[in-house]
Amino acid sequence: EPEVTQTPSHQVTQMGQEVILRCVPISNHLYFYWYRQILGQKVEFLVSFYNNEISEKSEIFDDQFSVERPDGSNFTLKIRSTKLEDSAMYFCASKDRASPYEQYFGPGTRLTVT
Amino acid sequence: DQQVKQNSPSLSVQEGRISILNCDYTNSMFDYFLWYKKYPAEGPTFLISISSIKDKNEDGRFTVFLNKSAKHLSLHIVPSQPGDSAVYFCAATLRGGSEKLVFGKGTKLTVNP
């Protein structure tokens, strides 16, 4: 069964450093998302991406964040200058038109900022 | 911002009995609701969904009920199995736009053998 994959599974970085989290969505999906979950809190929407552009972003998704679909398979989230409060699980998700609302999630990347 | 609320952080049931997980929402514009299951160190897995035009959707052991007037939905698992032990998230979305999911905080279900 097709699945969303994410790399790395765990990333440790120092405050102020740039990180890139990578995702490979399900191949025929057209809509892509990033969510995050800070420990003990709810899963929060960060950004949605469709047709090679951002369709919506949350207040969390400030100028330090960017997304890119550099080729036909990868979808990346970049944090330019990490802060301690960026420590969280980051989940990538994708969906297609056939199942208009069900999003399929990757296993997540645990980002630890020290 | 508490648009989707799951007021019970945990629930414990015996194997074979019914598990009922509850969810409330405040935004009357939501028109589609989903339940996700999450095991530790994994991403959320889609379980079952319901459109706002329905009041019930069933898939095997899982049934979701929607009460629009009360802005309340529930997930019933019958019979519960130890493998159902996980965190269950309720999520809601709006038709059109990005169709982002708005999640509740989750309920940790433990099914005891």
Walk me through what this model shows.
The complex is a heterodimer of chains A (114) and B (113). Chain A is mainly β and 114 residues long. In chain A, 0% of the residues lie in helices and 50% in strands. Chain A has no helices and 11 strands. Chain A is globular and about 40 Å long. The mean pLDDT of chain A is 93. In chain B, strands 2, 4, 5, 9, 10 and 11 form a 6-stranded mixed beta sheet that branches. In chain B, strands 1-3-8-7-6 form a 5-stranded antiparallel beta sheet, with no helix packed on it. Chain B is mostly beta strands. In chain B, strand 7 (62-67) and strand 8 (72-77) form a beta hairpin. Chain B contains no helices and 11 strands. The mean pLDDT of chain B is 94. Chains A and B meet through strand 4, strand 5, strand 9 and strand 10 of A and strand 4, strand 5 and strand 10 of B.
Keywords, separated by commas or semicolons:
heterodimer, A: 114 residues, mainly beta, B: 113 residues, six-stranded mixed beta sheet, five-stranded antiparallel beta sheet, 0% helix, globular
Entry summary:
With 114 residues, chain A is mainly beta. Chain A has strands spanning 5-7, 10-13, 19-24, 31-37, 43-50, 53-57, 65-68, 75-79, 88-95, 104-105, 109-113.
